[in-house]
């Protein structure tokens, strides 16, 4: 018996040795055979294949893992330059002289090492345990609560943490397994998808089919890390076009996992939380199936784009459409004619929403096709264009112009760049007519006309703010096939509430009929001739003041107030009260400094870090601005009693529409341009004595030249000129009295 057992052990050892040496030498032998018959090594054969990029990276990784000289652990610590150096060395050693093969190999190497770096970063964050005595950790925890329950405050230890799905009043104990990774991913979910996370939290609190929200979130972090460690996410990350992988891409996978778990839980409707393990296993099986059969990257991409699309439309409904729809409630109290007119504006905003929704699902069309995309809006504008011509004598003509001349703002999708400025131009056109309305109907109908104007301008301003927030550089068309749904029927039922239907099209016939009726009444009265006076009451002697002395002692009848002239006919400038409502601005956008609407600010100091930066100063009054450093140019527009001190300018200083200014340069200033400026003292430095001064429509401009004793000598810039004809050309010189 002992001999039999010993023989079996010898047999097992021999089989293991044979398997070990076979696996050790078979791969090099196969590589040698491949090289002998094809003249190419295994790496060259893989790189020359025209296969999907993720498959190529996986095969290259399998080859590199068989090389003893390639240390993956140390490679994850290399920088990008070191990776390129390693790739060049390996290309030389493996006879990869073809440029296309070199590029493919470097790409594969970046992807492989990037995955290892991502794995290392995830482990580093996970190993950081939550410390209740660390203020930074406590701040992140309280941030999570404020995102989910912004209306209340909480301490680090509180019984209300149970409402978010933690096991007890001290949530720090639940982060023992995943460390700060679980907390950071929960915060990322709530920050990026606020409404979606609040909806999932609300469903998790269902008394019959609820689940612990926070605990599930931490388990989804564990599932995401598990997929990353086991290598299931390699094909997903390797298929991305970006070479550098970041934690954000892993967080997006986490969001998708949490979203799918919530969906499965809502479909299965388990009676208690004991079904968590079963649903988690089902979720992992579904994810692995998608990784094998379907491109998970497209699923996640469509999921994220669908979320962004729903957010955009939700904001449009709550902020833009709500203001446009509120106009009808005001207009119907004034006149049915204005109620019909408000329906025209609301219809235009509904059509714009349809255009945005369709645009988010289609590829960017050609410029000549964009107008076809906005066909219904242009058709609406054309349908009511003749109404404006036929209502010139109408009482509400300015109301008609306000609405109809504002409709071009709804075509901002056709503007390739800076649609915000386009909308602002339309708002200014509408303001021209709204000012007329305010002058004509200041307090009539209990101020409803003022509310009408304010509500319509509010709708236009909300549209401008919406475009500024999402499409400041132009509408972003998405490369998504129209009609492709990113969710199934259950997904729509669970997460997306149907939006209210748009209002019916405005009744054009009723609007035209009301205009025709008014025209007929007007012509009927004109055709009466002298008979029109028959409807007047007869004035009796007791109604005549010279025959009835009692009327002389009565209270005089108040004269009707005459409306002031429209703003466009007066020469008065805007009042100071309007100017004070402007918000002061001090910001740097890329390489442009904006200083606007400051009043009585004597301490404005700017540090310039890049000489390519430019500065624009607008509508500042009684301020002192100090600029340190060297910049490209400065422009002052519509400023009063403002002092500017700067070091150096590369190109020019422009002063336009300013009054009573003081300028001092401490360094160089090649060019000084003054336009429509009254009163300006310019203190030049010794480096700026060769400055070129260009003036037009200016007065009281004085240059102060530095002298050797440290004082300044004042010289005025001529204001009057004399022009004579010398026989060949006009000759202009400063006049003697200038």
Automatic annotation (TrEMBL):
Any one GO molecular-function label of the UniProt entry: actin binding
Database matches in InterPro entries: Adenylate_cyclase-assoc_CAP, Adenylate_cyclase-assoc_CAP_C, C-CAP_CF_C-like, CAP/MinC_C, CAP_C_sf, CAP_N, CAP_N_sf, CARP_motif
Tree of life domain: Eukaryota
Residue span, ELMO domain: 136-291
Cellular component, GO annotation: cytoplasm
Secretion signal, residue range per the UniProt entry: none
Any one of the GO BP annotations: actin filament organization
Pfam families given in the database record: CAP_C, CAP_N, ELMO_CED12
Protein name: Adenylyl cyclase-associated protein 2
UniProt source species: Trichinella pseudospiralis (Parasitic roundworm)
């Amino acid at each position: 018996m002992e001999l039999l057992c010993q023989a079996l052990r010898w047999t097992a050892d021999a089989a293991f040795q044979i398997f070990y040496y076979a696996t050790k030498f078979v791969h090099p032998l196969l590589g040698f055979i491949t090289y002998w018959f094809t003249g190419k090594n295994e790496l060259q054969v893989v790189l020359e294949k025209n296969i999907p990029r993720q498959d190529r990276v996986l095969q290259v990784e399998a080859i590199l893992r068989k090389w003893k000289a390639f240390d993956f652990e140390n490679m994850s610590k290399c920088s990008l330059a070191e990776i390129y150096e390693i790739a060049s060395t390996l290309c030389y050693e493996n006879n990869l002289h073809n440029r296309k093969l070199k590029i493919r190999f470097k790409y594969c190497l970046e992807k492989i090492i990037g995955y290892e770096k991502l794995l290392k970063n995830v482990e580093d964050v996970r190993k950081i345990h939550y410390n209740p005595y660390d203020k930074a950790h406590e701040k992140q925890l309280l941030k999570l609560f404020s995102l989910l329950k912004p209306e209340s405050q909480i301490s680090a230890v509180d019984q209300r943490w149970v409402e978010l799905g933690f096991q007890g009043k001290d949530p720090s104990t639940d982060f023992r397994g995943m460390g700060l990774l679980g907390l950071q991913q929960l915060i990322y979910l709530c920050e990026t998808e606020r409404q979606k996370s609040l909806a999932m939290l609300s469903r998790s609190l269902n008394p019959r089919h609820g689940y612990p929200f926070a605990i599930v979130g931490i388990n989804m972090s564990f599932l995401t890390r598990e997929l990353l460690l086991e290598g299931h996410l390699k094909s997903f990350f390797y298929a991305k076009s970006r070479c550098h992988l970041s934690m954000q891409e892993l967080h997006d996978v986490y969001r998708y996992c949490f979203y799918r778990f919530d969906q499965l839980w809502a479909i299965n409707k388990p009676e208690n939380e004991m079904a968590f393990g079963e649903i988690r296993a089902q979720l992992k099986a579904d994810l692995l199936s998608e990784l094998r059969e379907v491109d998970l990257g497209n699923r996640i991409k469509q999921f994220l784009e669908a979320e962004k699309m729903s957010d955009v439309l939700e904001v449009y409904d709550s902020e833009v459409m709500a203001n446009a729809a509120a106009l009808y409630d005001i207009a119907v109290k004034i006149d049915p004619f204005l109620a019909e007119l408000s329906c025209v504006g609301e219809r235009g905003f509904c059509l714009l929403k349809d255009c945005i929704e369709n645009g988010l699902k289609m590829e960017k069309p050609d410029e000549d096709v964009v107008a076809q995309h906005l066909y219904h809006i242009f058709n609406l504008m054309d349908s009511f264009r003749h109404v404006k011509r036929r209502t010139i004598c109408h009482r509400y003509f300015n109301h008609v112009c306000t609405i109809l001349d504002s409709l071009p703002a709804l075509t901002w999708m056709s503007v390739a760049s800076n649609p915000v400025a386009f909308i602002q131009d339309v708002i200014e056109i509408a303001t021209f007519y709204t000012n007329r309305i305010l002058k004509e109907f200041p307090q009539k109908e209990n101020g409803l006309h003022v509310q009408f104007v304010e509500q319509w301008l509010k709708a236009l301003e909300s549209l401008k703010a919406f475009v500024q927030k999402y499409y400041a550089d132009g509408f972003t068309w998405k490369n998504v096939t129209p009609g492709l749904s990113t969710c199934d029927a259950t997904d729509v039922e669970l997460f997306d509430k149907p939006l209210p239907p748009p209002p019916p099209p405005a009744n054009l016939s009723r609007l035209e009929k009301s205009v025709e009726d008014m025209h007929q009444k007007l012509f009927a009265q004109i055709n009466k001739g002298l008979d029109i006076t028959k409807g007047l009451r007869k004035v009796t002697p007791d109604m005549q003041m010279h025959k009835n002395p009692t009327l002389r002692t009565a209270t005089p009848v108040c004269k009707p107030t005459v409306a002031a002239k429209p703003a466009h006919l007066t020469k008065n400038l805007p009042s100071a009260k309007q100017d004070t409502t402007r918000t002061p601005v001090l910001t740097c956008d890329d390489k442009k400094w904006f200083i606007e609407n400051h009043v009585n600010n004597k301490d404005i100091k700017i540090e310039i870090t890049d000489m390519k930066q430019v500065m624009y100063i607008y509508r500042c009054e009684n301020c002192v601005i100090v600029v340190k450093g060297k910049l490209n140019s400065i422009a002052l527009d519509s400023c009063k009693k403002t002092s500017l001190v700067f070091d150096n300018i590369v190109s020019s200083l422009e002063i336009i529409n300013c009054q009573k200014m003081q300028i001092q340069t401490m360094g160089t200033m090649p060019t000084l341009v003054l336009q429509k400026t009254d009163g300006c003292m310019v203190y030049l430095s010794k480096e700026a004595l060769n400055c070129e001064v260009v003036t037009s429509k200016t007065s009281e401009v004085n240059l102060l030249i530095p002298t050797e004793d440290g004082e300044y000598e004042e010289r005025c810039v001529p204001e009057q000129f004399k022009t004579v004809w010398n026989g060949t050309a006009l000759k202009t010189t400063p006049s003697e009295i200038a």
